[in-house]
Each structure stands twice: as structure tokens, then as C-alpha cells.
Amino acid sequence: MVTDYGKVRRIIEKAYEGACTVVEYRDTEDKDSGIKRNKEVIVAENLPCKLSFELNYPSEQTDTVSVISQRAKLFISPEVNIKNGSKIIVEQYGKRAEYCCCGETAVYPTHREIRVTPFIKWA
Fold it and tell me: Between 112 and 56, whose confidence is greater?
């Protein structure tokens, strides 16, 4: 049994090749007018992470197209708690993409795994 989680964590974190920004859609009050509106609020920036992809085979076949399903998972520090429904902007390998945190996250002593889907719009 592994007892030196710190060592394992340092090894995992060496694989983090990206950084992410976490955005929530919150009810905020305009200081000047006092009017409350929903708007995007950055809750965390420049968090080291690793975005990983998994292709699901076999693909779904229809009469006209073959659909390949892809799942994405974000690996991040276990202390980082991202709320379900948050927008996660990931920059990795020179590319920038927006995802949505979906479902429960798996938390381990060494890292957290978050299932993400492409961000489409705020619910």
C-alpha cells in the first residue's frame, strides 16, 4: 500500500501540461445601479491541470454517418473544488477550449478527476 502520497502527487503533477480558469454564473449586484444580474465571475485562474481524452469505440452507426464518442477528463489538485455546471477554460498544448464540469468528481489523496463536456451555454 502506498503511504507516501506526497511523492505520488508530485509525480502526477509533473504530467500537468495545461492551466485552467474556473468561471461561475452568479447573481451579482451592480454597485452603481443596485440592479442584480447574472454574469460570469472568475473564481480561480491559472490552475495547473491535465486534460485527457478517451475515445469510445465502437462508434454509433446510422444510415448516413458514423458517430465517434469522445470523453474528456480534467486532472487537477485535490484541493480544487469546482462546482457542477461551472465553465472551465483550459489552455493546453497552445490550444484554448471551454468545458463544463458535469457530474460528480473523483477525489483521491493525489489528485481530483473531473468529467467535462464541451461548454455550449449557461443553463
Answer: 112
Query: Which residues face 71 on adjacent strands?
Result: 54
For 71, other C-beta atoms within 10 Å of its C-beta total 12
Domains in the chain with CATH codes: 5-118 (2.40.10.270)
pLDDT one-digit tens code per residue, 8-23: 999 999 999 999 999 9
The number of C-alpha atoms within 13 Å of 65 and in the hemisphere containing its C-beta is 3
Query: What's the mean pLDDT in 110-123?
Result: 92
**Helix locations, 47-90, DSSP H:** none
Residue pair 56/69 in contact (Cβ under 8 Å)? The answer is yes
DSSP strand pairing (36-61 vs 66-76): antiparallel
In this prediction, residue 1 carries a pLDDT of 65
Q: What does the radius of gyration of the chain's CA atoms come to, in whole angstroms?
A: 18
